[in-house]
């Protein structure tokens, strides 16, 4: 029994060293103060899980009993618990009061928490007009409330109490005061402890600082942040969620007092560790090394070069210097407390090529690095593209030389040639002078040209150069556009001239019988036109010419004729002579009959001696679609009427040489299939078509004035008032 008690006493101390997790004690109901006679249940937990094994209970820091993880208590005291797998929990004071009015505080409460206070009277007394106080001062906004919340409490010794008016047996009212209450605020996290990797680090060596603490297992969600200090100077970047700080190198001036601080991210709880003294020891310089960037010492002219001199060991103030072979004075010198130093050489030139070294000294004598070779290459400059052609204006078929040249650059240089970003070809130059590319020009070679040069150090592109390949005009085509099929005086004739090929602008010339009519310029496709108001003199040959400065081309000749009378006068003349035509139809029919008779006498089976046809009266005319048909002038005696036939209009000149003849006409009858069906023998017997002629003679007045009228004047008037006219098909013709 004594051995068992000894184990119980020693075990908590061993487990409080941090090896085992701390047990947690909870209350149900969650109030640390209760009325005498009430019961409170205590539960022992590990983190958020109930203790599964036997639980050891302590009262007023003494072992009390062994029981399961939950027990009920009725007596005041400081209670603790633990299990075989945990350390001793924090003490919780539970008070059972005989008073009629008590102030209760929620449990558990941690630093920075908001705590709920409740002013409670006994069941047989009704408490009202409750007021809450802290350290004797009334809390604001706390009158006549059953509950009140105190924000962000801390582990201080503040005393809280409440007052209320209690009614006894619903008759007597007594004002009562509760006993002072010291809220049991538990630590949210332990005070931090600073751990260092070495209290006497060697100068130049790294060191690690660790700020150790432990968060309450009941509040694992709380986030902490850490900060490290040396002699009131903040180290690193300040506050960080990492409890570690890595110092790459420690120097003699880094010696001093160090500590760390831990706080919640809400900044309401902050705790500081004890200080630790650190002394840094100095080390001589050793293993000096020179490094060149870009790596390898291969530089391009215009780049920046960095000479990095470093030491493997050495502390304190180190002087670095840089040197180039062939130069007496150093390139540069820096004194600093560091394991390396840099010298920047801006915009290196070809003369910067050579061998370099550096030296380091911390009062023990300079230590030299090994030699490093540096080479400098020259990148190509922007190339210049030029054209070399046989003439100023490039023509289709010319041989064009594209010449690309970079005036600076380490050879070999590869030149590429482009037309509208399409690669034409490439050529390499192993020395100065650039490279060329030849091109036989076509019309498609107009556009923008460029080239680029590349010697492996970055390609450079030239400016674009425009080339316009001029195409000579092709032979133009002349087109005449009139309002109708037959052009007459007064019509507007459009002469359209177009070359299907040729560079713009194109100048078009229009000619009539080699006389220039006019000109028009075209700046795009479609040719050009020239309008002409027609007169009788405009009949003849027309042509046009196209020229864009590379040689003119002439079109083929187009013949054109103009009728003498305008369209308006033709209508008036037709209306005037229509009456005359009707009046002479009888005379025209008689003349045609005589002609038909004369022609029939010359043919076998033709007209008889009496002027009648050799066919029976029921026969009719045979139609013809290719030439004028003959017509029988004899009165039709067949029983069925002839089908209407369409006359093929024929034309004759108005007013021939005989000035006495003012009108003449020629027409024929075209046979239809119906006529041929009624006349089965016509096609065989009447192979020649009958042609009808009619004339109208001019009648002069009887007076001498009419006799004396000039024939030439009458001839001009006749030509002015008459024109060619088609014959009108009349009902009597059928």
From TrEMBL:
<feature type="region of interest" description="Disordered">
    <location>
        <begin position="699"/>
        <end position="734"/>
    </location>
</feature>
<feature type="compositionally biased region" description="Basic and acidic residues">
    <location>
        <begin position="699"/>
        <end position="716"/>
    </location>
</feature>
<dbReference type="InterPro" id="IPR050488">
    <property type="entry name" value="Ig_Fc_receptor"/>
</dbReference>
<dbReference type="InterPro" id="IPR003599">
    <property type="entry name" value="Ig_sub"/>
</dbReference>
<dbReference type="GO" id="GO:0043410">
    <property type="term" value="P:positive regulation of MAPK cascade"/>
</dbReference>
<feature type="domain" description="Ig-like">
    <location>
        <begin position="383"/>
        <end position="470"/>
    </location>
</feature>
<dbReference type="GO" id="GO:0045577">
    <property type="term" value="P:regulation of B cell differentiation"/>
</dbReference>
<dbReference type="GO" id="GO:0019900">
    <property type="term" value="F:kinase binding"/>
</dbReference>
<feature type="transmembrane region" description="Helical">
    <location>
        <begin position="575"/>
        <end position="598"/>
    </location>
</feature>
<dbReference type="InterPro" id="IPR003598">
    <property type="entry name" value="Ig_sub2"/>
</dbReference>
<feature type="domain" description="Ig-like">
    <location>
        <begin position="284"/>
        <end position="375"/>
    </location>
</feature>
<keyword id="KW-1015">Disulfide bond</keyword>
<dbReference type="GO" id="GO:0007166">
    <property type="term" value="P:cell surface receptor signaling pathway"/>
</dbReference>
<dbReference type="GO" id="GO:0034163">
    <property type="term" value="P:regulation of toll-like receptor 9 signaling pathway"/>
</dbReference>
<keyword id="KW-0393">Immunoglobulin domain</keyword>
<dbReference type="GO" id="GO:0030890">
    <property type="term" value="P:positive regulation of B cell proliferation"/>
</dbReference>
<keyword id="KW-0675">Receptor</keyword>
<feature type="domain" description="Ig-like">
    <location>
        <begin position="192"/>
        <end position="270"/>
    </location>
</feature>
<feature type="domain" description="Ig-like">
    <location>
        <begin position="21"/>
        <end position="97"/>
    </location>
</feature>
<keyword id="KW-1133">Transmembrane helix</keyword>
<dbReference type="Pfam" id="PF13927">
    <property type="entry name" value="Ig_3"/>
</dbReference>
<dbReference type="InterPro" id="IPR036179">
    <property type="entry name" value="Ig-like_dom_sf"/>
</dbReference>
<keyword id="KW-0732">Signal</keyword>
<keyword id="KW-0812">Transmembrane</keyword>
<feature type="compositionally biased region" description="Polar residues">
    <location>
        <begin position="609"/>
        <end position="628"/>
    </location>
</feature>
<protein>
    <submittedName>
        <fullName>Fc receptor like 3</fullName>
    </submittedName>
</protein>
<dbReference type="GO" id="GO:0004888">
    <property type="term" value="F:transmembrane signaling receptor activity"/>
</dbReference>
<dbReference type="GO" id="GO:0002638">
    <property type="term" value="P:negative regulation of immunoglobulin production"/>
</dbReference>
<dbReference type="GO" id="GO:0006955">
    <property type="term" value="P:immune response"/>
</dbReference>
<feature type="compositionally biased region" description="Basic and acidic residues">
    <location>
        <begin position="629"/>
        <end position="638"/>
    </location>
</feature>
<feature type="domain" description="Ig-like">
    <location>
        <begin position="476"/>
        <end position="563"/>
    </location>
</feature>
<dbReference type="GO" id="GO:0050859">
    <property type="term" value="P:negative regulation of B cell receptor signaling pathway"/>
</dbReference>
<dbReference type="Pfam" id="PF13895">
    <property type="entry name" value="Ig_2"/>
</dbReference>
<dbReference type="InterPro" id="IPR007110">
    <property type="entry name" value="Ig-like_dom"/>
</dbReference>
<keyword id="KW-1003">Cell membrane</keyword>
<dbReference type="GO" id="GO:0009897">
    <property type="term" value="C:external side of plasma membrane"/>
</dbReference>
<feature type="region of interest" description="Disordered">
    <location>
        <begin position="604"/>
        <end position="646"/>
    </location>
</feature>
<keyword id="KW-0325">Glycoprotein</keyword>
<dbReference type="InterPro" id="IPR013783">
    <property type="entry name" value="Ig-like_fold"/>
</dbReference>
<keyword id="KW-0472">Membrane</keyword>
<dbReference type="GO" id="GO:0019902">
    <property type="term" value="F:phosphatase binding"/>
</dbReference>
<feature type="signal peptide">
    <location>
        <begin position="1"/>
        <end position="17"/>
    </location>
</feature>
